[in-house]
Amino acid sequence: MESYNPLKVISYTIGFQEVPNETSLILNISGCPYKCRGCHSDYLWEDKGDILNENSLNDFISPYNSYITCVCFMGGDWDYNDIKDFSNIIHNLGIKVCLYSGNSKVNANYFSFLDYYKVGNYNETLGGLDNINTNQVFYKIENKGKIITDITYKFQRKGLKYAYSS
C-alpha cells in the first residue's frame, strides 16, 4: 500500500514577480524532491511545516481574497491529486492557480486544471526564468488546457544582458 505524504506549507508571501500580471499568494511547500544545485529556495527541501488541507488553504486565502488573483504553489509538487483538489477549491473562489515545478518533464495532466505552470529544474549554468539561456519554461494555460502558451519571455524583459554572456 502506498503511503500518503500530504503537502506541507512552510511559509507564504504575496508576490508580483512569480506570475506575470498577477498578484499571487505564494505557498512555499516543503519536501521538494528535485534539490537542484544552486537553488535559491533550498529551505523547501526538507519535509516539514503545517499540513495543507481545505481549511488551512481557506485560512491562507481569506485575508487576501479581494487582493490576490492567483495562488502559486512553490516547491513540493509530488502530489498530483492534492494539487488538483486544491486547484478546484481555488478556482471556485474565482482565483487562478500556478504551479512552480522543478521537474524537467512536463506533466500534461496538469494542463486541465492549472492556469500557469513553470517546468524545469534549476541549472546554475543556464540560470532561472529571467535568463534567456534557461532550460525552464513558464506556460500560460487557457480553456482547461486547450490553449497553452510559452510566456517565459515575460521574465526576460530585463534579461537581455545575458544574450552576450560568455
- Which class of secondary structure composition applies to the elements? alpha/beta
- Portion of residues in beta strands equals 15-25%
Number of strands: 8
Which percent bin holds the helix content? 10-25%
Which word captures the global form?
globular
User: What summary fits the major beta sheet?
Assistant: 8 strands, mixed
Structure write-up:
By secondary structure, the chain is of the alpha/beta class. The protein is built from 2 helices and 8 strands, in the order E-E-E-H-E-H-E-E-E-E. Strands 3-1-2-4-5-6-7-8 form an 8-stranded mixed β-sheet, with helices on one face. The longest helix is centred in the middle third of the chain and has 13 residues.
List the helices and strands and how they pair.
Elements: E1 8-15, E2 24-29, E3 50-51, H1 54-61, E4 70-75, H2 80-92, E5 96-100, E6 116-119, E7 137-142, E8 147-150
Parallel strand pairs: 2-4, 4-5, 5-6
Antiparallel strand pairs: 1-2, 1-3, 6-7, 7-8
Question: Main attributes?
Answer:
166 residues; 25% strand; alpha/beta; 8-stranded mixed beta sheet; disordered C terminus
Q: Briefly, what is this?
A:
This protein has about 170 residues and is of the alpha/beta class. The protein is about 15% helix and about 25% strand. The chain has helices at about 55-60, 80-90, and strands at about 10-15, 25-30, 50, 70-75, 95-100, 115-120, 135-140, 145-150.
